[in-house]
Amino acid sequence: MADAATATGATEDAAALIDDGPISSLQYTVFAVCFLMTALDGMDVLVISYAAPLLADEWAVEPTALGLVFSAGLVGMTMGAMFIAPYADRIGRRAMILWSVLLTGSGVLLTAFADGIGSLIALRFTSGLGIGAMLASVATMAAEFAPDRRRNLILSTVLAGYPIGATLFGLVAAEIIPALGWRAIFVFAGAATLMTLPVVGFLLPESLTFLLRTRPVGALDKVNRTLGRMGREALAALPDVVRVIEARTVASLFSDGLSRATWLLWSAFFMNFMALYFLTSWIPKLATSAGLALELAIYAGAVFNFGAVFGIAASGLVSQKFGLKRTIAAFLVSTAVVMSLFGFAAGSSLVLVLFGLIGFFIQGGFVGLYAVAARLYPTEIRTTGVGWAIGAGRTGAIAGPLLGGGLVAAGLAIGASFRWFALSLLLAATFTLLIRSKQID
């Protein structure tokens, strides 16, 4: 048995340990934990939105000050994805997820004790750092434990946790805030996040791909423990490293022929984030502007997220058959078409249907970009690559609501506003199709 392991182990690539054979119960556990983490991210991002109306009344907060609180969270998420998440390529995906849980949960929990706008801004920034680092690390972990034949579908399913968590948390917030006040919802969200620390600590192993390609101290023992939990034979020796990138920096994203693909990926993320955050930030206002009664406009966000859940699942399935880039482009172009038609539905309940379709297509295409990032970069810089792509996208997330606010303030018709952002989605689709990589194609 040992001789066989030695013969195959010395030359076996990290990916082969995952790609060969059926998906083990340990892998399903990893995917479930990653799904839980993205669901909690969805909760932690939106907790301030649910608390804001009551908080603003209690403190007599001006809209401009509240806008700074929202922006602090977005800036924190951008910085976390770009400057904290890349350390996962040094310390490991599991360690970074644990630190992200601690940072996010502590920041959210302490927000319940904020005594002014200054402390609120600081704590939302802190929470955002953890949220940004978490999403990039979880996406990388899920991608590295998924076999190539199912990677697109599994990553889409894991990332579907985000809208699901946001939607379910909305139901919880609707019960807690009226009964216990806005501070209670931060206690609930922060405590729920921190309670996952032992879940991650006990159930989540380090990525095999990370261990085999970066060779930390005790790598062989850690690999064999994970292989044992997967029902696989132990290795007598670590396999040969096919490729090592020593400089795990942002500059590595532009080396070895990656430069063009990196710029295109960042541009696609930026354009997609810009349209997505325009929609999510302005949905209630857009719905009322389109002629919906206030009661129905409140449901527009829920319909959007409901459509998103199914769109994410559908894009994962479709991409397994027709390819990742073509699927993303098709979903984004479909979103642009639906958004272009939006103005014609003004004044009718058909607006809700269109919001559902927009959520279906835009989130389906958007999540596919995470899979592109995870496939594009080698193990040594994978979390750096995913994190900086998300960070580039979040600059679009900041720009989208600002541009949308300008269009609304200028009195632009709803249909015209939507067509501006439909154009950004067409550009995102084009940039995605232009990315060239054997790992993606």
Question: What is this structure, in a nutshell?
Answer:
The protein has 441 residues and is mostly helical.
List keywords for this structure.
Growth Hormone, Chain: A; 78% helix; mainly alpha; 441 residues; disordered N terminus
Question: What does it look like?
Answer:
The protein has helices spanning 2-9, 14-19, 25-59, 63-84, 88-91, 93-111, 117-145, 151-159, 161-180, 182-194, 197-203, 208-214, 219-229, 259-289, 294-298, 300-322, 324-341, 350-376, 382-409, 414-434. With 441 residues, the chain is mainly alpha-helical. It has 2 domains: 2-229, Up-down Bundle (Growth Hormone, Chain: A), CATH 1.20.1250; 250-434, Up-down Bundle (Growth Hormone, Chain: A), CATH 1.20.1250.20. The model is unreliable at 1-12 (pLDDT under 50). 52% of the residues are buried. The two termini are 37 Å apart. The protein is globular and about 70 Å long. The protein is 78% helix and 0% strand.
